[in-house]
Amino acid sequence: MKYSNYQAFICLFIALPFILGLSKNTSRDQLKSPVIADNNLKDHFSKMIYIEGKEFTKGSTSPFTPTVSDSTLFSQGIPQRATVGSYYISATEVTNSEWKAFYNEKVEEIGKAKAKAIYYPDTSLWLHEFKYTYNRPHAKNYFSKPNFNNFPVVGITWDQARLYCQWKTEKVNQLLRKKGKKSSVKFRLPTENEWEFAAMKKPSEDRTEKRSPYAWPEDKMLSELLQLTNLGQIFDQNGVPIKSYADDGCLYTCEVASYPPNDYGIYNMAGNVSEWTADQAQIKTIFFDNYDAKILSTSSEIENEIAYFQNNFDVEEWTVKNAIEKMEHDKKILTNSNVKICKGGSWANGLVYAQPGSRQGKNKDNASVKVGFRIAISEVDEEVLNYFPKTNWKPSKK
Q1: Does any domain span residue 185?
Q2: Does a structural domain hold residue 258?
Q3: CATH value at residue 61
Q4: 90: which DSSP letter?
Q5: Beta strands in the chain (DSSP E)
Q6: DSSP 3-state assignment of 33?
Q7: Residue 37 confidence (pLDDT)
Q8: CB-neighbour burial class of residue 371 (10 A; exposed 0-12, middle 13-18, buried 19+)
Q9: Domain span at residue 51?
Q10: What's the confidence (pLDDT) of residue 10?
Q11: How many C-beta atoms lie closer than 10 Å to residue 157's C-beta?
Q12: Is 307 within the bounds of a domain?
């Protein structure tokens, strides 16, 4: 069927708001992040939310099979107990506006050409990752235009995220020293355990309550999920699409805090963008008889492990065969020593990525328009706490 010029114009008119980075969320009250003043310590801490550490079960996910189309998702592992100390984590992903404060200071420090080469997000990825010509406006405008200020920064590597944390640490500690404070603060990427714990639904006092592998009750209907998170396509068991990218209101990324916060008051821990963590990617082998589990962090280590399984166990036995198949899949992710753990899923990922226990392995040098980050702080001294908010951050309205 051929379309007339009139039909083509109508299709373009309908799609234009999404092409320009808008969504049905723009009909809601517009959200605005506070502008960080260089001399205001409270602004630097305004989004930090306190998480009391404790022991928890990490890696709990519903059954899934890693897809061929996106090989960054590790195979489903075995849930295990882990412990996190108390810490602070930011209520939202780092925004374009917050990254601009960092970038602009680097421009003044080392000049525009050098700063752009080192610190400017790779906006060309909007074209190169998906190869759609209608992404050109995002490639041109996503970081540079003010209407995207409150969107999560993307197209940055793990090292660039770490440099942002280092810059913020130095800036805040300079301000503390000016105020005669001896204490220091260190901003950093959250660990995988910290990120996962903060993304989980708060445990109920009712020990009989069924635990959900998501940050919401597992029986939430699809129509309800569309109001909770920004995800990619969802298919039924027959491969029929039941949710498109834009059905949740955002064809691409959304403004941070466009959806309700989780139990801790943290936004977008499921969807919007996947997020870098501090941890090196690795997998843990399962137990067989008296065989001790190992932590494997490179593809060559997994190859050796596969050979061990093949030489010492019956490869026709289902559990052994299944373990080898999972390791073969995960080996493709751990192609070198530069793979870091990402969590949370993105606007382009399916529902399984939104499980707090799901784990992605991504080369730390490979930026993506699906990946951003948020920041964390370990516990701080009493004299610094005066600059922290007394209540959880909430987005102000324009």
Answers
A1: yes
A2: yes
A3: 3.90.1580.10
A4: E
A5: 31-32, 48-51, 55-58, 80-83, 87-90, 187-188, 234-235, 241-243, 274-280, 283-284, 295-296, 339-343, 360-363, 371-372, 376-378, 396-397
A6: coil
A7: 46
A8: buried
A9: 31-281+334-387
A10: 39
A11: 21
A12: no
* Spatial CA neighbour of 77 closest among 370, 312, 293: 293
The reported pLDDT for the residue numbered 240 is 84
- Whether residue 11 contacts residue 3, with contact meaning beta carbons closer than 8 Å, is answered with yes
Both structure tokens of 313: 């166990």
Query: Would you say residue 184 lies in a domain?
Result: yes
Structurally, the chain folds into a number of domains equal to 1
What lies within 8 Å, CB to CB, of 340 at 6+ separation is 158, 276, 277, 278, 279, 280, 281, 361, 362, 363, 364
Mean residue pLDDT across the chain: 85
Residues of the chain with pLDDT under 50: 1-37
User: pTM for this structure?
Assistant: 0.87
Long-range contacts of 42-45 (CB under 8 A, 24+ apart): 42/387, 42/388, 42/389, 44/168, 44/171, 44/172, 44/175, 44/387, 45/387, 45/388, 45/389
Question: What would the pLDDT profile of 71-122 be if each residue is shown by its tens digit?
Answer: 789 988 888 889 999 999 999 999 999 999 999 999 999 999 999 999 999 9
Query: How far is 199 from 270, CA to CA, in rounded Å?
Result: 8
Distance CA 20, CA 139 (A): 10
**Distance between CA 338 and CA 285 in Å, rounded?**
20
